[in-house]
Specification:
alpha+beta; seven-stranded mixed beta sheet
Length: 515
Amino acid sequence: MKRRMIALLLALLMLALTGCGNWDTSELEDPLRDLTDYYETDEKEETPVLTAFTLPYFSNQTLDPITCPDGAQLTLGTLLYEGLFALDEQFSVQNVLARSYSYDADTFTYTIKVRSDIRFSDGSRLSAYDVADTLQRARSSERYRARLAMVNSLYAEDSDTVSISLSQDNRCFTARLDIPIVKSGTESELIPTGTGPYCWQTDDGTYLGVNSHWWQEKTLPLERIELLDCRNTDTMVYSFYAHEVQLLALDLTGTNVTSVSGSGNYTDAASTVMQYIGFNTTREPFNSAALRQAIHRGVDRVGMIDAYLLGHADAAQFPLSPRSDLYPADIETSYSPDYFASAMAAAGYNKGISRPVTMLVNEENAYKVSMAQQIAKSLSRYDLKVTVSVLPWEQYLYALQSGNFDLYYGEVKLTADWDISSLVLPGGSLNYGGYSNENTAKLLSAYLTADDDTKRAKAMDTLCRHLADQVPFLPVCFKNISVLLPSGAVEAITPTAANPFYNMTAWKVNLSKKK
């Protein structure tokens, strides 16, 4: 409770201290107002006794994890479906449906053995054909197409073996295979059949019951999870306020953020969504690595996250989540106005000669606009004078693709193998600034092709040191997904961005028996 109130007060205080500048204050007030009711807690309000644990869903939408929309359906699906692999809180890869795998570096081919002791909730055996069919559908889906783009071929060799051949060498590719698997032939049903800990039940109302065929055979904290059919997202959020549902997983600083009211707790899970500053490296002034390094010194990531993302992100100086075991925290540099002044002087930008530049940001996300505005203000203390141009998405994207920009504030969902090829390689789909450096390509390849954990960590360290020197783009933070629960409802929750119920068998749910 205090954590929520302090977070809000800190955000409001920092807004007051930073002043207005060139800001459109209506854009700043909206996101704060949206979350105020949730972060503020009425001390006099008594939390209702929890007699059931209920999740929202939309009865007219599919639960197929490949094609369902983001939100409630995808959250519910994490209890019904499992992937070949899962990512833990540090983004380490854990075997789930996969028993083992091998990799042929000559042909870039993964051979994955599926566990033989797994059955779907209807009692039928999981086979490699089910896995291959789901992954083939994922290759052409909006949600997974980009992460599977390097797959050349994918098929089941037999009922126990899946073969996946890539177009390039990548020894970290299993981090992309946490895609939920459904039983082949049921994908067109509203509720496809899965292997997860729970299954759909309608014998006594509509609810999730324990899957008696669940292969992990662990004790679950809830025998029954009630389901509430909601008309739309607004109805779902109101149901949380009214204590009719007990869990929501939301991006509280997203583009289409939903106002959340009511008392409760939140737990943030790290995601692979990176916000960053992009540079046009093909023209002055940001063709200078020295100036790009100076910009790095001028961004107070932690302070800006607390104020303008309400703390729902992790500051990052490198293009991988700080929660990852691979993150080289020991080579980070602390923010300091003095360091920024020295760096700008070293780059030749403290001579009293104004050098105007423009930073682009898309208008659809008020939080991103706020971040861009404050970054621009903090970078404009010396000769560099940064003006923010707030554009509709289509105009923003066109300007980037045309190379008509100096700086931009961007956001990208990376894959959990931390492959930044699209951002730094010539011709990369997100390399709008035209960055090209042969050594960058070699070091990235060395990381992606490292064949054990020790070599991979060393290669990542070397790559990040090089990126800190070249600064082809500037990571600012990795966003979090927030799991909202009523106060005191659940203990020992350890969610991931992909699965709010990760390690659910360790939960302690405080349910009271009905009188």
